[in-house]
Amino acid sequence: MDRNDEHADLTYPKIEYIPKPDKKIKPEIEIEDETKKSRKTKRVALIGQIVLGIVFIALWEILTRMKVIDPYYWSSPSLIVQTGLQVLKEGSLYTDLLYTAGATILGFILGTIGGAILGLSFWWSSLYSRITEPYMVAFNAIPKLALAPVLVILFGIGFNSKVVLAFMMTIIVTALAAYSGVKAVDQDLEKLLYSLGAKRYHVFSKVVVPTSMPWIVSSLKINIALSLAGTIVGEFISAQHGIGRMILYAGQVMNINLVWVGVVVLSILSIVMYLGTLYLEKWLLKGH
Known about the structure:
With 288 residues, the chain is mainly α. The chain has two domains: 25-74; 77-284, MetI-like fold. Helix content is 80%, strand content 0%.
């Protein structure tokens, strides 16, 4: 028998493939669990914040009624609400609130946009950035609030001086943040784009701005607080309207309840503005 015939007679057992039963993918379950856990944590945190606020207000009211803390200096939630409603009926609170909020928001917007443009401009020239950076850092070290009396004299006691103060409080912070983003740009990516024929404005719009955006956005929450502080200080020095002017007037006439109304209104305004910056961050960082 030939060797080829011997091999031809050999038979091999057939191996049958038995498919495994379908199973749910565990990572998907884990992702769903993490999402549910995150939502639950947010709900619990919100409930906790509300409960803590209620407890704080209740203790404040009880301790002042029991004379544990002096109600003359610390007032009480009930007296603050009564005084606030009275001022609200008179109509002056609306005007003061709009005045303070308007100056703060306008100064915040102008300072953030101006600072972003200034910081991003350093990418175009390393010589320009090296010359300008020390002066920008030095100006940032100057307490801008100390310049408030000068700015009020220059721009008047009206709305403009408050906007300028809020603007000066924010522009350098944003510029430094944008410049940090510029320095974080990938140099190899820039060289690659240039080798592929990209122009400078292409690299700037497609690489530099997107890279710097998270740095700029990170300064928003700081800027809104600085803008509000600048506006209030300007109103303390001299103003025709505003929550700061209301607090200063209430202190001069020893109306402590009205002082606390101003403090509470400013606290609520700062919280609303802070939440606004959070939504603005999410909108600006879409796709990053």
